[in-house]
Amino acid sequence: MTADTLHRRLESLDAHPALLTGIQRGIEREGLRTDGIGQLAMTPHATSLGSALTHPRITTDYSEALLELITGVHGSTDALFDELGATHRYVQQNLGTELLWAHSMPAGLPGEAQIPIAWYGTSHSGMLKHVYRRGLAERYGKVMQCIAGLHYNFSLPETFWDTLGYAGDTSKSRRSSAYIALIRNFSRYSWLLMYLFGASPAASSCFLEGRPHHLQRLDRDTWFLPHATSLRMSDLGYQNEAQSRLKPCYNDLDTFIARLREAVTEPWPAYEAIGTHRDGEWIQLNTYILQIENEYYSAIRPKQTAARGERPLTALSERGIQYIEVRCLDLDPYEPLGIGATTSHFLDAFLLYCALLDSPHCGPAGFCQTSADNFKAVVEAGRRPGLMLERNGESIALTDWGHQLLDGILLCAQRLDAANGGTHHANAVAQQRAKIDRVDLTPSARVLNDLQQRGISLHQHALELSHRHADTLRAQPLPAGLDAQYRAMALTSLDAQVELERADTGTFDEYVARYERALPGATTSAS
């Protein structure tokens, strides 16, 4: 039974509390650069921020204006937020009058053709990233990819899996099978994260222009769903027909890799019709369902650090799962860093809970439609009074199930507090329990209440918060020594990009063909 497994493993943790001091976490925060009135910044990535290709902490995602700020791996939440805060302060102080947009849903956007795709220089690896993004524009449009989110990376020490008796013949197999089991449980319960932390119940007209939707009008510029928690994670988000057909298997790592490998090697008719070149220039890397593995958008991913030029699937196949990446979190618009420490403490307890629970396999296809349906119900209507979800073939109220989950998560939070000192994790669980009892405390409810009570648009709301956060970050200049470290990091990254461009041999076409063949078991060349 699931409860028996949880309590047995908790008892084992009580005998080995030091296992929990080895938890590692990191954050990747995306955020659009805008001008002072909330229009998408059309300026290039600032030289003072270094090379978006080679800087370890400051890069760009889809658009040249979509910054991504990445922390290192940290053993404590304090250290994690110290670094995240320092990077935000350095970036904001080097943006001039530009802002980091506070909301996940985009700022004022120009026409589709004017949205700038990120540029990484002329090296083969830089051009691969750029052409991949050209392909995303062809497949999904540019507007959709101006949505920003926050990724939370989490790992448990190798000794955790070995000591607690997870199944597997080797440490690698125990670790990988346990992470896959964690992912299955995450998929079952991630609707709770969307209820607690979803913060995008509305969207601006510029995002919806020319797209079919079922949203309601709030004002001339703003559309919403009255009980939505996260439109970013709804069908309005990063989806299309090809993506919607993907059903990766989370029953075991080998099958997951095989399914995803099929997606990056199987042609898709609509993409074949586009082709890979137009007017002599690359417009997408290939015509497969996915150009590369990272194109698959999911709420969570198994991860293994890949070397430059190494395919993610190859890294997973050869070295197993190293950590998991939670990808469903909206930016918290009320936090200057897009996330607060309390959220991090809760996520650690939630993910530990998913790791400790028994995790039955999904159906024969390895994909649970019920979990997907629950997730969809909560992102679109999670605050609806009396909302019912499905659990084990029966209906259950979101509030009842939420409290039951928080009871188990609290047990994990208490172990984390015992191992690390303090009561931060238990306090974080208590704050989330209050949201179950009072829906008006959820971020999505707070956003809608602000819009409705003050009679302002989503754009106005985000612009005010963006200015407020910029003022907060500018008011905390980095100490001279730390500022010098960030400037040195930027210069080093610029030099590294130049060196990559200098060291390239062969043609870009040959480079793409080699990259295609780098898949585990691959024998074909690029399209």
Automatic annotation (TrEMBL):
Please state the Enzyme Commission number of this protein.
6.3.2.2
Q: Give the coiled coil ranges.
A: none
Its pathway, per UniProt, is:
Sulfur metabolism; glutathione biosynthesis; glutathione from L-cysteine and L-glutamate: step 1/2
Domain Glutamate--cysteine ligase: where? 16-376
What enzyme class is recorded for this protein?
ligase
Which Gene Ontology terms of cellular component type are present? cytosol
- Keyword vocabulary terms for this entry: ATP-binding, Glutathione biosynthesis, Ligase, Nucleotide-binding
Q: Which domain of life is it from?
A: Bacteria
Gene3D superfamilies in alphabetical order = 3.30.590.20
Q: Which reaction does it catalyse?
A: L-cysteine + L-glutamate + ATP = gamma-L-glutamyl-L-cysteine + ADP + phosphate + H(+)
The entry lists its GO molecular-function terms as:
ATP binding; glutamate-cysteine ligase activity; metal ion binding
* InterPro entries the record matches: Gln_synth/guanido_kin_cat_dom (IPR014746), Glu_cys_ligase (IPR007370), Glut_cys_ligase (IPR006334)
Q: Does the keyword Nucleotide-binding apply?
A: yes
- The question of whether Ligase is a record keyword is answered with yes
A Gene Ontology BP annotation from the UniProt entry: glutathione biosynthetic process
What protein family does this chain belong to?
Belongs to the glutamate--cysteine ligase type 1 family. Type 1 subfamily.
Q: Which HAMAP family match?
A: Glu_cys_ligase
Protein's name according to its UniProt entry = Glutamate--cysteine ligase
User: Per the UniProt entry, what species is this protein from, by scientific name?
Assistant: Corticimicrobacter populi
Name the gene behind this protein: gshA
